[in-house]
Design goal:
alpha+beta; Multidrug efflux transporter AcrB transmembrane fold; 4-stranded antiparallel sheet; 3-stranded antiparallel sheet; 27 helices; 65% helix
Length: 786
């Protein structure tokens, strides 16, 4: 009696206890779902010790969270009428009173600098000292702002007449639910204003985008779970024509989904754009387990009609093969654990644990539930003898038998075409490319890109290495030259820095004449700065530009949605100016910000993709070496699974689908799943070798005929299961679903045509009595008599 026969007896003898155990553990995991939290910030794709992460952390230590601004924008000439103008200011004032708001910068908040000659100091005067009641008064305010206050250009207005208001949230609430509450209270007020005054208000800024994006992810989780359940159940029923089999399968994957959410809560992970994929992924992977187990059960019933014997053979014959396929799939996902990215590590841990879990659930629940039910009726077994399926299998056998040269030639041509396509793949590190294109907040992002240059902050941290070193005129001149370089890039917005404020003080000193909006000369420095020292400043804006010691300054600019290549060019040019203007012995200058971090994270993941995929391939190679003791078999088993990956990469190049954090997953996921077909085929092939006295040709054809149906069923289920992801509103999820679906379909064809062809071509080198006999590892037991 082999190991799996003992396992079968153990499961079937302890049915009630096992069901009770599953129910108890499921109940425990349900309690853990209360610990699930949603991510309120973008996960850092880089390891904590990466240079870019260290630079970003240093910036945060000096100035705190950089993405605290929510921006409101209006491009409508009618806003410059008394009723709408005053209503706009009142709307902003209502936000200012919120406890989560640090301060706002709007037209109503503007304070003009005035030089007080008598006291030799600057004083602050409001731009609007009373509500305007006529259009002429509003236009006078507009003229004063647009023509005489260049300090506020691109901060509150642009030359085309677009107004902008910045709401600075408190830094300590940015990554909490308080941010969510504020954003949810923001939209109703804005919608009421739009409805009453017929003005279209655009809203953006990283806190706002993060919140709405997070809510979109939350909204899609249930949608994906239900969608994956329905589509896989429908396809399953089409194949098996059995409500009983469909119900059992749904029960298994439903419990698997509960476990998936439970493990997220138990491990203390957050729901991110990746971990949100785990529950529907488990459904898609779990259904093929049910296909193999139920299909085998029905085959056994049709052979001899003995239920106990059928259930025992389901576990003993398919259990080990299914375990191996699930372990290899889990291993493919587990390779992400070795990537130094917390986001991917959590995804790898959850995916691998849940894949093994869904195997355990299927192996336990399916035979146990069938043991309580009567034998399947004849109509439920008819699918085993479908003429069209026989025709498909017969065609595959004829093709492998007679057209191997055609198969090889086609494979070579496809490889060449795919490699050409691979060279056309571009890399994208965009933070917003995957966001729902139809969502209003995405359209608003594009509005602010057109009008103000972008919304994704890019920060430059300047360390003068001494207290009050920033306010030295030579340092200010160096910062100004860096500002001018930034303004040369159409992809970046006009920068905001202490230089803008110093220029404004000179303009104020010269009676608000805008032509003096420039840095003071050495001669002007002493008396202009003396005016500034005597002044009582509105410190909100000042503190956001320079730290309290005067040692550090920041330059803030905003990026458009640009690719990795453009960002690298911009960074190189900025670094060249920094190297020239800021000597290392006197300054330390860091280019950082969440957007740059995301771009660098994308490149980091691409480099590590090779590592994770190589590890997955190595694991499969080790398994094949263990099973067959033949290096030729390792190559033969890998080729049919690498070919679909090459085709997918080629398709990405031809269709302009970029490499990005979401599509990087395609290769490891597809390889981990597609190799399952190889293992099922080779497991059956090895069993046939033993039964046919190591005669390879009959063994290959017999393996093709017996596994072909199950492989076809599972591949179709996987294809449509992953296709559910293509109805997502997130571009990355759409690409992931589509690419994995196509890859798995190609992998099925490759494993049913190319793999048996290779076995037949190299039959003398890859299998003989010695290698098979010496292998202690038995993935399937020898054939048994009916």
């Amino acid at each position: 009696m082999n190991f799996w026969t003992k396992v079968a007896g153990l499961i079937l003898r302890n049915r009630y206890f096992i069901l009770l155990l599953i129910a108890g553990f499921t109940a425990f995991l349900i309690t853990q779902t209360s610990n699930i939290k949603f991510s309120y910030t973008e996960a850092n794709l880089l390891p904590e010790d990466h240079e870019a992460t260290v630079d970003y952390d240093k910036f945060l230590n000096v100035f705190g969270e950089e993405g605290t601004i929510i921006i409101l924008g209006v491009k409508d000439e009618s806003i410059f009428t008394p009723e709408k103008f005053n209503a706009w200011n009142e709307l902003v004032s209502s936000f200012k009173k919120d406890e989560n708001v640090a301060f706002t910068i709007s037209i109503d908040d503007i304070k003009k600098l005035k030089a007080n000659r008598a006291d030799q100091k600057f004083e602050l005067e409001p731009l609007i000292d009373k509500k305007p009641t006529t259009t002429a008064e509003v236009l006078a305010i507009k003229k004063e702002l647009f023509e005489n206050l260049p300090f506020y250009e691109n901060l509150l207005y642009n030359k085309d007449g677009t107004l902008q208001t910045a709401i600075y949230l408190k830094k300590d609430i940015i990554n909490t639910t308080a941010r969510l509450d504020f954003v949810n209270s923001l939209d109703p007020k804005i919608e009421a204003f739009e409805a009453k005054y017929n003005v279209d208000v655009k809203v953006s800024g990283m806190p706002y985008i993060r919140t709405l994006n997070s809510q979109s992810i939350q909204g899609e989780i249930l949608f994906f779970v239900l969608g994956a359940l329905l589509i896989t159940a429908f396809i399953f029923f089409l194949f098996f024509k059995s409500f009983r089999a469909t119900f059992i399968t749904l029960a298994v994957v439903s419990i698997g989904v509960i476990w998936a959410f439970g493990f997220i809560g138990l491990l203390g992970y957050q729901i991110t754009v990746l971990t949100a994929l785990i529950p529907p992924l488990i459904i898609v992977i779990g259904v093929p387990n049910a296909v193999f187990l139920i299909n085998k059960y029905q085959q056994e019933v049709k052979k001899h009609g003995n239920q106990a014997k059928s259930l025992q053979r389901v576990i003993s014959k398919v259990g080990n093969a299914t375990l191996m396929t699930n372990i290899t799939t889990a291993s493919g996902f587990a390779t992400f654990i070795f990537v130094k990215s917390k986001l991917l590590q959590e995804f790898g841990v959850l995916a691998s644990i849940n894949i093994v879990s869904i195997f355990v659930l299927a192996l336990l629940i399916i035979p146990i539930l069938y043991s309580f039910m009567p034998l399947p009726k004849e109509k439920h077994l008819n699918h085993l003898e479908r003429q069209w399926m026989d025709n498909v299998v017969n065609w595959m056998e004829r093709t492998v038998r007679n057209r191997r040269i055609t198969i090889y030639s086609t494979a070579v041509v496809i490889i060449i075409i795919s490699i050409i396509g691979m060279y056309q793949i571009r890399v994208s590190g965009s933070m917003i490319e995957d966001m729902p294109k139809s969502a209003q907040f995405y359209k608003d992002i594009k509005f602010f890109e057109r009008e103000f240059g972008g919304i994704m902050p890019l920060e430059i941290l300047i360390d003068s290495k001494k207290e009050k070193g920033i306010m030295n005129l030579p340092t200010l001149n160096r910062i100004d030259k860096l500002d001018e370089t930034i303004q040369d890039f159409p992809e970046l917005s006009k920068p905001i820095s202490i230089v803008n404020l110093v220029k404004y003080t000179k303009q104020a000193y010269y009676n608000d004449n805008p032509k003096y909006y420039q840095l003071p000369t050495r001669q002007e420095q002493s008396y202009i700065f003396s005016y500034a020292k005597n002044s009582s400043n509105d410190t909100n804006l000042m503190n956001s530009m320079v730290d309290s010691t005067g040692r550090y300054a920041r330059i803030t600019t905003f990026m458009k949605d640009i690719g990795t290549d453009k960002m690298e060019v911009i960074q190189e040019r900025l670094q060249a100016v920094i190297k020239k203007e800021f000597p290392k012995e006197k300054y330390e200058v860091l280019i950082t910000g969440k957007a740059l971090l995301f771009l660098k994270g994308t490149n980091y993941l691409i480099h590590n993709l090779v590592l994770s995929l190589s590890l997955a391939i190595l694991l499969i190679a080790i398994f094949m070496a263990w099973m067959f003791r033949s290096y030729q078999m390792i190559l033969i088993s890998l080729i049919p699974n690498i070919l679909p990956l090459l085709i997918t990469a080629g398709l990405m190049g031809y269709f302009g689908i970029p490499i990005k954090p979401s599509t990087i997953l395609v290769f490891s996921i597809a390889f981990g799943i597609s190799v399952d077909d190889t293992i099922h085929f080779l497991a059956k092939y090895r069993q046939e070798l033993l039964a046919n006295n190591w005669k390879i040709k009959p063994s290959v054809y017999s393996a093709l005929r017996e596994t072909g149906v199950s492989m076809f069923y599972t591949s179709i289920v996987l294809f449509f299961g992953f296709l559910v992801f293509t109805i997502s509103s997130f571009g990355g999820t759409i690409a992931l679903g589509g690419l994995v679906s196509v890859t798995l379909l190609l992998a099925m064809v490759s494993n049913l045509l190319l793999l048996p062809s290779l076995l037949l071509t190299f039959e003398k080198r890859i299998a003989n009595k010695k290698t098979v006999k010496e292998t202690n590892f038995k993935i399937l037991p020898p054939k048994e008599d009916k």
